[in-house]
Amino acid sequence: MSLTAGSDPSVETGSGQLLVHMRSVLPGLAGALRQVGNVILEDPAWASRATIVELGERSGTSPATVTRFCRSVGLGGYTELRVGIATEIGRADQAGWEVGIGADVLPTDPIERVLRTLLAVDLQAMHETAAGLDLRTIEVVVDALVAARRVDFYGVGGSAAVFEDMQMRMHRIGIASWSWSDVHNGLTSAALLGRDDVAIGLSHSGRSKETVEMLAQAKASGAATVAITNFSTSPIAEVADHLLCTSVRETSYRSGEMSARHSQFLVLDLLYLAVAQRTHERAKDTFARTADAVAQHRTPYEPRGRSARPADPQRGA
């Protein structure tokens, strides 16, 4: 899901993104509303058949709270909620996916099932992330990156590792960019940005204090700000001009942040390739020059069965 900060966080019934949207906005809802959402996400199939009274009872709330929950996620009422969930379950069944919390790895699972589960969960997260992206927002961000004087990337922990790769790739196609994980250095850089610059913050939870602070400073300095997160109502969304959301479910043995890597790279790869397209001639030239610069540090390839020693001129070829 991709929203411009401040827009209405609603979702169309039948879009196949209702449960994704719920997971995204759930942390920002009040306690009773969050209870309703948790019950739905724990067992979407049951929720699609339950009455409003049954859902209220299971969540320890009331029909009125369920109705408020529907409105809080952009739906007109409970009937629309049930139809949306049923539609998403049907589409997931056709694709061979599980809905709700998703497939998980058990301690007794054989390695083959672990592999299948891992592949299914990561592929589903990438498909859901791609389906939820607002390509108009992507275009706006790409325009800003192409025109930027410089680009700052802010992330801590696992997000910092993801951004190190992105920063290097952008630098290699001629986009002046820096990646900051230390909050003091990041704030210093953010303070020197201006209206011709872009700052992108990455935080799966959207609550990493250091990342939010760095992005907020960049915004205060006049830079265009972009947030990439799994939760559209998280604190980082409040300091972003443009919001790009992944759709990732936490599984056993992998935190949400660890599970998010593939979906985060999908969003970043899309931005990178779109920028490279827009700046084709420059990108092609700078990429070739950087490749030449490191070519001498690559070990020459020698096919197996052939000696790596130079031929003896006395013995002939």
Fold and architecture overview:
The protein has 317 residues and is α/β, with parallel strands linked by helices. The protein has two domains: 8-101, Winged helix-like DNA-binding domain superfamily/Winged helix DNA-binding domain (Arc Repressor Mutant, subunit A), CATH 1.10.10.10; 135-290, Rossmann fold, CATH 3.40.50. 54% of the residues lie in helices and 8% in strands. It has a six-stranded mixed β-sheet, sandwiched between helices. Helix 9 (158-172) links the parallel strand 2 and strand 3. Residues 1-10 have low confidence and may be disordered.
Q: What is the CATH class of the largest domain?
A: Alpha Beta
Task: Tell me the domain tally.
Answer: 2
Outline, from the CA principal axes? globular
Q: What is the CATH homologous superfamily assignment of the largest domain? A: Glucose-6-phosphate isomerase like protein, domain 1
Ranges where pLDDT stays below 50 over 5 or more residues in a row are 1-10
- Order of adjacent strands in the largest pleated sheet: 1-6-5-4-2-3
The percentage helix is 40-55%
CATH architecture classification of the largest domain? 3-Layer(aba) Sandwich
Alpha carbon gyration radius: 24 Å
Our count of helices gives 14
Strand content: 5-15%
**Which structural class best describes the helix and strand composition?**
alpha/beta
Which sequence of SSEs, written as H and E, runs from N to C? EHHHHHHHHEHEHEHEEHHH
- The separation of the N and C termini measures 63 Å
Mean pLDDT: 85
Number of strands: 6
Summarize the biggest pleated sheet. Answer: 6 strands, mixed
CATH fold-level topology of the largest domain: Rossmann fold
Keywords: DNA-binding, Transcription, Transcription regulation
Region (Disordered): 292-317
Protein name: MurR/RpiR family transcriptional regulator
InterPro entries: Homeodomain-like_sf, HTH_RpiR, RpiR-like, RpiR-like_SIS, SIS_dom, SIS_dom_sf, WH-like_DNA-bd_sf
